Fold each of these.
Amino acid sequence: MRKLDLSSIRARQTEIHNLCTALNSKDTLSESDQFRFDTLMAEAETLAKKAENLRKLGGLSDPADAGAVANSAWNGPHISIGSQPAVYRDLGEQLVDVVALTLGNDMKAKSAAAERYQKVMNAASGASTGVDSDGGYLVETDKSRDILTTAIETGVLASRCTVQPISANADSFSYLAADDRDRSTGKMNGIQVYRKAEADTMSSSGKAKLKERELRVEDMYGLIYVTNRMLRDAAAMGSYVKRNLRAQLAFKLDKEIWQGSGAGECLGIVNSALPVSVAKETSQAAGTIVAENVVKMLGRFRGDLTRAAWFVNQDALPQFPLLKVADQPIYALDFKKFPLGGLFGLPIVPIEFCSSIGAKWDILLGDFSQYLLVEKGGIEEAESIHVRFLHDETAFRFIVRNNGQPMHDAPITPLNGSNTLSPFVTLDERAG
């Protein structure tokens, strides 16, 4: 048996990651696929343990413990995030040091800040980048992750997406999607299955078709203005910056997921080829949503119903309690489960990105787990006293690297039936 070293273990771990990603990208997993996935994940866990043992035998530190090594001389309070203690109590303390490093004249404070910043760099373990020569400073891993995670969780759409982190050495994420969107021929992913009588010659089952899709990370930045009086109160400044940055990132990311162009930003659902649209009813009044619309939209949906929801313009809410099918209400109000009501057991979620009532995209039945977000590293920060100099404010700029797109590039054409199916279904314009 070939002896495994750290390099070969990492290569095999990468191979396993790619294989599992390809399996997980399928719409459904067969029993053999699930068995293969579980086997690969078990192998990955075994390899991780072997790598840890090899590092111990070689006297090497695990990258996860780098923070502890870098912090050995720091006597201040520690915040443990996993196995990596923090250099700073909060984000505000670190931003004060950033200002001291770049804008301050106190050499003693500058020296102490530089020493603490070097500890942050040493503890980064490759997950983030900071380019101090360009005025960018690395926000600690735990605080960086907290800002990014809460920003995604704050977003109505981003919180429902599938999130894929990528490594520090990569600028894009490639995955293999089964090229089985057209099933009208009876083939699934290019494979045909037959039966044969005894001694008959087998026909070719075809060749598996996989389509490579790629997402390249792009920069997204936020600007926060802080008064110089607030700079003297680190805790207040840290809370203020996190709250506002989180809100900015969440709104921007949600807007791109909905309507991004795909050029230097996320490809939004509205501008992708994946959604399908249902025609309005004959003589349907302008600016209305009727029960027949909702029923037909549900008939075109193909996704995970446990994750799906009705995303609507706020102005549409008064129409839903009136919807009935054969005198039976299809709307239900449950303040615990559906605070704004539900249609056919799926929640109604008003979002400001939906079009005005009566226009296309004023209502969407969507499963956003079929939307992929990739993110790289943490947050890079830079500052300037010049942007708002006359206001006695310091400007902080935060850059994150991410991107997103629907997992597939086309709706499904089923074996039988004339209508395509999709995890995103909208309604045609009802102008009159």
Amino acid sequence: MPWLIRVLPLLALFPAFALAAAEPAAESVPTEAHPGARAFAREVAQRRGLDEASILATLDAARYQQGIVDAISRPAEAKPWKDYRPIFLTDRRIADGVAFYRAHRELLERAAQDFGVAPEYVVAILGVETGYGRITGRYRVIDALATLAFHYPPRAAFFRGELEQLFALPPHRLPQPLDRLTGSYAGAMGWGQFMPSSIAAYARDYDGDGTIDLWNSLPDIVASVANYFAAHGWERGAPVAERVQRAADAQAVAADGVEPSFTMGRLESWGYAPFVHVDPARAATLLTLDGANGPEYWAIYRNFQVITRYNRSPLYAMAVYQLAQAIAAGAAQADLGR
């Protein structure tokens, strides 16, 4: 989905696929019960030039969902990499990704040419987010965003912003009326799990029908994910990550998140040697993961950081990277066997 950076300090450890899949049953009550709804409608109407009565009527029809508050309040994932990886790097997810890649190769490669993003990464995002469109969420988006905007104080400001953006999306650019759009419990939509602000900024009408349909139009879905990466600085043809070997006397590296603040040459001088040749001038940083067979050391680059703009968790980005690599290798192998 892309979860924008503002919400991710809280949600970074939620696997996006789990966000779409979790659908707890819940009692519903009108959102109008929250006194902030009327003021919100008035302010949004003034800022956006929209009809206040129409906004308020939509909010009055939105339903509070206790299950949404329960789900977003639970810490989802303090899992180490050795437990996180098997969630996404399954035989089925890889096989489905290979099949999707091969079935839609022309579209994927056209988007890759237009946006500069390798096709396997677009496919991997769709696989991690929604199982290639199988589970996109069944909450009404208006219910999800209204519940979190008015009933979840820790992130109310963020979700009010997303709710405002939902009202501001041009209706003629959406595949359904606003109150019929469905998504995850956090309001993320479609195969790529885009929040309203991401739809506004990055979604693309790639089939030329005048509508952006992230649920049913594969051209729109593929181009929107590719454009999201491109807009956040994806480097065409550049690497994402490389496994490195740590020397016994390697210097400890105080890596600051996923920002590539060193160079490969410096990492090598500190005792972290890549298994393949990498330009020593390439910007990189060190990521240490708790693997099934002990610590894993990775050099990660700018494109890895771009993946974390989709979801802040380095584990998420590594899952996307490894799934993409497996899909590309599987597609190539299948092509050889034709």
Amino acid sequence: MNCCRYDRKEEVFRKKLREVRQLLGSQGNLSDNEAELIIEAAVLEDRELKQFHTLDLLWLVDRLFLTTRSRLGILTPLVEDEEVTEIMVNGADNIFVEKNGNIFRYKEHFDSIEELEEVMMNIAGDVRREINELNPIVDARLLDGSRVNGVYKNIAINGPILTIRKFQDEFMRMEDLVKNGTVTDEGAELLKILVACGYNIFLSGGTSSGKTTFLNALAEAIPKEERVIVIEDSMELKLPYIENIVHMECRNSNSSGAGAVDMKQLIKSSLRMRPDRIIVGEVRGGEVLEMLNAFNTGHDGSLSSGHGNSISGMLRRLESMYLMAASLNIESIDRQIAEGIDIMIHLGKLSSGRRRIMEIAELVEYKDGDFKINSLMKLNREEVLEKTGNEIEKVEKIFLKGEQYASKLQELGFIK
């Protein structure tokens, strides 16, 4: 087939696909090994294909097997490739892949819109969700934790859209983030102490800036004896080092429009579970009201994140999200924000593709119509996170937690 035109190659595939589906369907329940043997025989014993190169025949066997037996179809090799970080399907004919920081067009494509839709339905079904004309948008995850967004053809102009953001099987620890330059040793030590001492911390950053990865690494500093409630839209955080943990995930409504459970409900419910800390994976709307209530009602050391272009920009976004849930004046909202959040961390993705902490700041108070932000560390022009020279102003939690933490921060120059 390598000497034939591309459309001839696809014509052979479609013809064999119909034949293979009939063969497999007539055999009843088959194991993958049995199905693969049937597919190999259908291809390698076909006299009409003897003229084709062996490599092309093996490609055909592999493509037929993925299409008929894998729940992810032709995306399976991409999902299994540890170097692939993002898979972007723009309709059946256009698949783009991010690998090692570079984006390129994938050589394969789905045979039809229906084949792509079947993969999307498989993914949604694995986490008890639906995607169809009545529920045209789905946020889900693969069994390995990779984040998935699907948009059905009735609202996507160029066909069904599927985006998969992959996560490593092994979560990154803080020392890994120090090694890859995301944060410095000093910055990592500061943040670990702040988490241990019970500071409420909020992470901001743009898409693919590393918020989930960093939130996972931060949570490792939570004392082992504490009970932690984790709430996410789709489960992404991996926290194996926390023993007393409850992990809850939102749920979409079913085809009858019933059964939906949103983040607001889960946060409210978590307050009755005797949490020491609450981790809200990401806030996007009115659930910020419940998140701040949790931060303000004795659950010291809680963590959350959101999309923002800077610390000040994130604070304004929190205002807007709060207004989605309550008609309060801005000053009342800002006071709630300032009282609930102690530390803001902003992450960014540089033009080189590297992820960095751009700033670590203390949210001191809201006064005279503005937030008082005390910047502790900032990324300099050489792309290194350095101390600003400012000291932490709200030190009560540090000294209450223990002299060892205060001594370390004094040594680092963050408190007197």
